[in-house]
Design a protein that fits this description.
The protein is of the alpha/beta class. Helix content is 41%, strand content 13%.
């Protein structure tokens, strides 16, 4: 593995799974854990598992803020690329070499895992599947090429992109913002199949309806507020937003657990 690749793991109350994630990641690259004000001792578990640096927010600020904190730390360590994955066990560190191979082929690309092309793993829960596909369709008119799984947080970001582009959004919206800003700045987007892992008994921090609605609101601001290269906003975006709302509402009504469907996004 490249000694210039660093991993950032944002966490909130992941004491049961975080140690194993960090230990397995250490086989590939140095690890930074950003503890977003956990109350269960996650920071201590990360340190004992061998994270090079454990940073802690005094109050909960959300995934976007945790990623920004981790990106800044990795860049200070001299990272030329930063891998991100979750600490709840839904991303298998054994898949990191696949993403890194794609990074070596296209060093300027933002590399994303995608679960729909996986050869093995758990089935994606129905509401999650609808939410992911709806977000993909909504992003379609904005991105230069369609993505298979735009909401996957298992990624490799080029260091040059993180130094050039200031990501500002909060929560899960930051990961969508990164795709839009990468497209605007001319960084390619590449998808790599990864395993689907849905640990039993785990409840996602991502709420399929409310968080995708926040993503849709961000994209609405992009569509109508401009800020990108000429021609990047297309009329089809408005129709995509309407489909997003319709699909998510229908899926929430059909799901036994509604918007609280258990399982990571």
């Amino acid at each position: 593995m490249s000694d210039r690749l660093w991993a950032v793991v944002p966490v909130f109350d992941e004491v049961r799974t975080l140690g194993g994630v960090v230990e397995r990641l250490r086989a590939h690259c140095p690890v930074i854990v950003v503890d977003d004000a956990s109350t269960d001792g996650s920071a201590g578990v990360a340190a004992r598992a061998g994270a090079v640096e454990v940073l802690r927010h005094a109050r909960r600020e959300g995934k976007g803020a945790a990623l920004r904190t981790g990106f800044g730390a990795a860049l200070r360590h001299g990272a030329t690329a930063v891998a991100t994955l979750d600490g709840d066990g839904q991303h298998d560190p054994a898949d990191l070499p696949r993403l890194l191979a794609a990074h070596f082929e296209a060093p300027d690309a933002l590399v994303l895992g995608h679960r729909f092309g996986a050869a093995a793993g758990d089935p994606i829960p129905p509401l999650r599947r609808v939410a992911i596909r709806a977000a993909d369709r909504t992003l379609g008119p904005i991105l230069p090429t369609p993505l298979s799984d735009s909401q996957c947080g298992f990624r490799i970001y080029p260091g040059a992109f993180l130094r050039e582009v200031a990501l500002r959004e909060g929560g899960f919206v930051l990961e969508t913002e990164a795709l839009v800003r990468a497209a605007w700045a001319g960084y390619p987007l590449v998808s790599v199949p990864i395993q689907c892992v849905y640990p039993r008994g785990r409840r996602s921090r991502f709420h399929a309806v409310t968080d995708v609605a926040r993503i849709a609101w961000y994209l609405t601001r992009v569509w109508f507020g401009g800020g990108g290269p000429a021609g990047i906003v297309r009329p089809a975006a408005v129709a995509s937003g309407a489909r997003l709302a319709r699909d998510l509402c229908a899926a929430a009504r059909a799901s036994p657990d509604g918007a609280r469907h258990a399982g990571p996004m």
